[in-house]
Give the backbone structure.
Amino acid sequence: MAVRPKVLITKIGLDGHDRGSRIVAAHLRDAGMEVVYTPPWQELAAVVKLALEEDVDVIGLSSLATDHLIVPKLMTKLRAAGLGDVAVIVGGIVPDEDEKALLDAGVARVFHPGAPLESISAFVRDAALRVRAARFPAQEA
Amino acid sequence: MNQPLQEPVPASIEDAQIRWRADYDARIGMDRQVNNRSGIPIKPLYTPLDVDAARFDADVGFPGQAPYTRGIYPTMHRGRTWTQRQLVGLGTPAAYNERLRDILGQGATAVSLIPCNSVFRGYDMDEVDEELLGTCGVVANTADHMATCLDGVDLARTSCAMNDPSPFTLLAFMLATARRRGVDWRAISGTSNQSDYLSHFVANHMFFRIALPGARRILTDHIAWCAAHVPRWNALSVVGQHMQQAGATPAEAMAFALCSAIQFADDCVAAGMSPDEFLPRFTFFFDISLSFFEEIAKFRAGRRIWARLTRARYGARDPRSSRFKFHAQTSGVDLTRQQPLNNIARVTAQAIAGIFGGLQSMHTDAYDEALSCPTQFGARIAVATQNILREEAHLTDVIDPLGGSYYVEALTNEMEERIAAVMASVEASGGMYRAVESGMVQRLIGASAQRHQEAIESGAQTVVGVNAYQVDEDAQSRPALARPYPAQIGAHLREFADWKAQRSSGTVAAALDDLARSAGAQGGDNIFGRVVEAAAVGCTHGEICGTLRRELGFGRPLALV
Amino acid sequence: MDRKAGTDGPPGDSGVAGRAADIRAGDSAALARAITGLENDAPAAHALLDALRDRIGRAHVVGITGVPSAGKSTLINALLGVYAARGRRVAVAAVDPSSPVSGGAVLGDRIRMSEAGAADSVFIRSLAARGHGGGLARTTRHVVDLLDAAGFDVVIVETVGAGQSDVDIAALADTTVVVCPPGLGDDIQAIKAGILEIADLLVVNKADIAHADRTERELGEMLHLRARREGWSVRVLRTVATTGDGVAALVDAMAAHAAAVGVGRRARGRGDGVDAAPPVPIGERLRGLAGRDAYIAHNGIELVESGEGTAVVRLRIEAQHLNFNGNCHGGAVFTLADSAFGLASNSRGVIAAGIDAHITFQVAVRAGDVLTARATELSLSRKLAIYRVDVTRQDGAVVSCFTGTVYVTTRAHAASLA
């Protein structure tokens, strides 16, 4: 059976502008992925619990205000929960200076406004396949 | 009043039009279908045949006269231009005050305040991640903080707008500040920006987390209390901007805003208020997208619908009740991260549409909003843009300069029809409150957002620098990052902790008890009146919000894809 | 934390036994990973389930179904709150539909919005239906077994919520709760043959809004038409999930039902509740039914094999079965599959009425091809049975997959057939 990527699309922090996260979630669904979608304002602990129980391959975080500033904290919590292999991507308004800090913290990729949806789904699919192959090595063939 | 707009249409105009059409088709071949964002087909040419000259009085008329299509005041921008209202907010109250004075010195004529997102969410600074404090607005949690924010501002003479969703603690803090300074509340003017809880719920923008029924009660109490105690305060700002930013078409955004206004007015009537008591203080807040003529027509149509419905539905007699006052902000969604300086041109075009649309107050976005929270440099250019448009470009010499344009009048009519159709579907589902509670409005907006995104992805809608005219970017065009100094925020947090420890805890607890009782099931007090009292005796924003959340329930966002 | 497929090992080890030990010990990560394995047919997934077999059958499995917007998610939220207050560990498996076009799915996560969902005693997993009809995912049954084995006191299964077709749940759950919004009104009549029939408990949610009284009355009247079963009479309850009113009473009623009928029903097998089969050989009975079926005769369909809960029929495709493209008309394939479905479901001598069916068309069929449809019984409960019909071509190619659900009555076929 083909691997169907499982992706969590969520928003942490304080901002609620969810147009982007909704559009990305709908696009990933239309690209054949299984998307766990949450409304904004998720607590970090809730995101970790959700990612663990849903066993997602990729977490996509939308940040349009400055909520990306707490992504490094999330990365630490994910690692502590044994979810260090989950690919985390951030989409939204992230200044160049902050992008580097996010990548240093272990974020796989930052997508900026104007990024074509196809480029997002292609990246997510590849990342998910890598994560899944490492988790279920017998399925590689 | 009764003279016709044009000379009678000569009989041959139809023939001339047919001839033009044949020439046009011969040269252009297969004409491309052009729709505006609201889905209205746009013709290549508009002529006298597109407007009914006999309906001039009824549909167009004169500025300051119903149906106010050409503007709500006889003088419009020729008399007094719009209020230049830049949203300001960053970091600590002291940093805000410094920036505010800078903006006022640049020509801004009114005060505006954006609080930190932690405030929007209903929390004090010690309840959220420290990294996020003050990055998008000022961290104001107490009356003392507000006094610092507004230091040096004459509250009796300066119009103040607060982005202050339910339960309106910022206004309460400002009133406490005014009282301390001996300023009469009756002299205070301004607006509770974004007091429209429905729009927050729909767009999940800074939604306050008080469940809808409670938010509904608080707003009605707020309107009633302000009418009695701060008569020059616009207690209600009905927001179409959130919907349009979330993806609604201009026609949908206008329709949803008008339906929300109807909902709030119905609630006020149900609470025993008379329409002419509260309608004059209703204001609106809209987005101005880059769809230039569509935006102008949106505003003209909105004015007309409001003028008619306030009379027909509410029997309003005071002309002020039928005047559609609105603040508008240039659309941040249309700005691009690529080649950010291009955004200055976008904002300029948006602003002109707003001016021709007859706005009363305007915020122009800083060009760097798509990169980060705006920098001081970006904010200055945004202010300068308004100054140039107002004083150099001769845009304000003539009232409603596009009135009488075949295109603009025809488009105004079509937008009105489109808006009315959306309003009818909301009414059919039980009114705006029900339509929002059920998620119907959110689904419509989601679908429109998707369509717009598809138009961009397919290239049907050009976005310069994104899907066309891309260039290798010069890193120098990126502005430096504006971020509060962590040391300032740290000190602010420590001061807050000390201040809380030194308060009279008994007084605070008593005020919060009174507030809880007013919101409780057998309450009967005006909830906002209790908020004002609590703010005055040292209750914090988070304490007030927390008390109300306990009594009125948490609001939960809808998860809709 | 990579977990490699293997065969053996102590707790914490990556082998099947190790992973089974982790799950027994309440390791959520191991449980979550095992569910993913089941969903994707990972090689060791079923071995893992077998290793936990001794633990299966203890949890009270509650199915929550109902039309869209009935408030299922909100009600589950409220249930979690009550269970948490009573110190019960609860797992939720929430099934969402997959897109028939892309195969993708959005797994809305409304359940997690409550404080209850964040508690350590709660485990929530979304499952995409992946094209499986009946309101569940193909693997839901195994996922429920896994959650049961992980030691949860209660396993709640939320169905897709497509309404009438969400009937698989009755075969899986110990207690099936059907949630109805008020104002269902005339719709009740329309859907009573389907989803309402599977209810052990009917809940009128949003009981604070208009029409709730009427809905409750109508549902109550409908119940009078039904016989008591298994020592349990179906009850109608009212809740307001948003405020929690009536939710504790619902939990009590669910517990009472479990006490009355027991838990672990899905493992007890089929056939309970259906009257004993009349003493007529099945082959003879089905030949009789087929012979009386005007449409089977009209289409030239022949019965070639029969058994309890199964039937095989065959059709040679002729010119009269072709569509405008010269291929076999989809309706002809459906007719063949439906005939197998009808015969198999009526094989026990009581009338079974089809209430729902789905079909796929996978390869083209031309004149001269011979199609064989084999119906097999996937599940049979007191009132509902579910069948799968595989339609194959003479060369073995799978032409169509068909699934159908019948409502099983207690009335025998006309005497002349028995």
